[in-house]
Amino acid sequence: MKSLPFFCRGEVIRGFGRGSKELGIPTANFPDSVVDNLPPDIRTGIYYGWACVGNGEVCKMVMSIGWNPYYKNTKKSMETHVIHKFKEDFYGEILRVVMVGYIRSETTFDSLEALIVAINNDIEEAKVKLELPEHRKLKDDNFFTSTASSFSDSATTTASTSQTIINGH
Ligand code: ADP
Ligand code: MG
Q1: Ligand 1 centre and the CA of 155: distance in Å?
Q2: pTM to 2 decimals?
Q3: Tens of pLDDT along 1-21?
Q4: pLDDT value for 166
Q5: Per-residue pLDDT for 73 more than 70?
Q6: Are residues 32 and 160 in contact, defined by beta-carbon separation less than 8 angstroms?
Q7: Which of 1, 82, 100, 168 is the most exposed place for a label (fewest CB within 10 A)?
């Protein structure tokens, strides 16, 4: 995918409440403004990369891009599981991510157990792949080291504006 690595950021909003937290795999959802700015070659499926909540540390992540049932599967959703134990929820915080690589396409699973096994495999694959030097270096990208406040103007403007700033960083 020519658009990878892809940098984006946005506020963490409430998701569809499909209970991913109950599975032990909470996913932080991006608003539609971020989803709508995905380049067309970014297809649905599971990605790995780096993520940063507010001004916190940069952690490994896995992200699912899928069809959102709330919109009768006409709109995509972007859900990031940060591979880190947080003390509390971070709704309303700015989440910055860089999508680095693609793991697999969306699949339906016969059981919840099979789904959980697959997600845990995705997490293990992400952990290993992100140690490759060309992927590891993105952790230290300026995108994460610049303070959130230097982006505060773009946070309130349209995502397309912030997208331009981010991908031109
Ligand atoms: P929702 O349907 O609102 O997205 P989830 O069950 O998917 O609910 O939980 C997501 C929320 O959990 C995130 O918005 C965030 O505030 C919180 N959270 C706590 N730990 C994590 C984590 N490691 N990765 C992603 N979100 C987390
Ligand atoms: Mg979620």
Answers
A1: 20
A2: 0.88
A3: 899 999 999 999 998 777 688
A4: 64
A5: yes
A6: no
A7: 168
CA-proximal residue: ligand 1, atom 17 (nearest): 89
Rg (C-alpha) for the chain, rounded Å, is 15
Q: Which two tokens stand for residue 86?
A: 């947080």
Exposure class string for 106-119: b at 16+ Cβ within 10 A, else e: eeeeeeeeeeeeeb
Residue ranges of alpha helices (H) inside 79-156 are 112-129, 133-136, 142-145, 152-156
CA 79 to centroid of ligand 1, rounded, Å: 9
Q: What's 165's DSSP letter?
A: H
What is the C-alpha to C-alpha distance for residues 37 and 60, in angstroms, rounded to an integer?
A: 22
Instruction: Give the mean pLDDT of 79-101.
Output: 97
Catalytic residue among 79, 93, 113, 134: 79
